Amino acid sequence: MPSNVLAVKEGEPLRRTLVSLAPQAWAFFTKPPNDPEFAVYQLRDDGSIESLMLTPQTRPGNYFGLSRKQRSQGPEMGVIGNTIKEWTECSPDADRGECLESVRSLKLQVVDNESPVASVCGRIVIFQTKAVPWAYREFESEARFEVKGAVVESRCTRS
User: Roughly how many angstroms between the first and final C-alpha of the chain, as a whole number?
Assistant: First the structure.
């Protein structure tokens, strides 16, 4: 039988040598699903929040996956999240609303958003979230829960 994705027949000794020198697996290309992620919300004057997330890719606003603007949002939020100095820890038992109430007591932090494709501008609330453990998925209504949060003024410097 010819080579396929499961078994390479041609170049077997060369392949083994290359794999032993430079091992590469799917983990190189993907991010673990249980890694922390940032979720960002616009903070309105009345105190309510609205999601600024551009995902999922397949929604109509993203031209059913043809637009790539949402792909730049992860690095943008990573830069913003990693420059925040003061976070408020959220209780593991608290929902998003309770976590938001504890976050509002924080001093507003100013962050310069220098992303070339800025999508997170103005007064925002940013949460670091974690995946609900697989064993508890039946008991939770959301797939992720808030770990900590902050209130930020994101100044977009490029347009």
Answer: 56
Angstrom CA distances, 126 to 21, 31, 51, 106, 150, stand at: 41, 20, 10, 12, 6
CA distance 138 to 116: 40
Q: Is 157 exposed, middle or buried (0-12, 13-18, 19+ CB in 10 A)?
A: exposed
Asked whether the predicted pLDDT for residue 60 surpasses 80, the reply is yes
Neighbouring C-beta atoms of residue 129, cutoff 10 Å: 20
| pLDDT of 1 above 60 | no
The CA-based angle 111-117-118, given to 5 degrees, is 30
Residue 87: Cβ-neighbour burial (10 angstroms; 0-12, 13-18, 19+): middle
The number of helix segments (H) and strand segments (E) in the chain equals 3, 6
pTM of the entire structure? Answer: 0.72
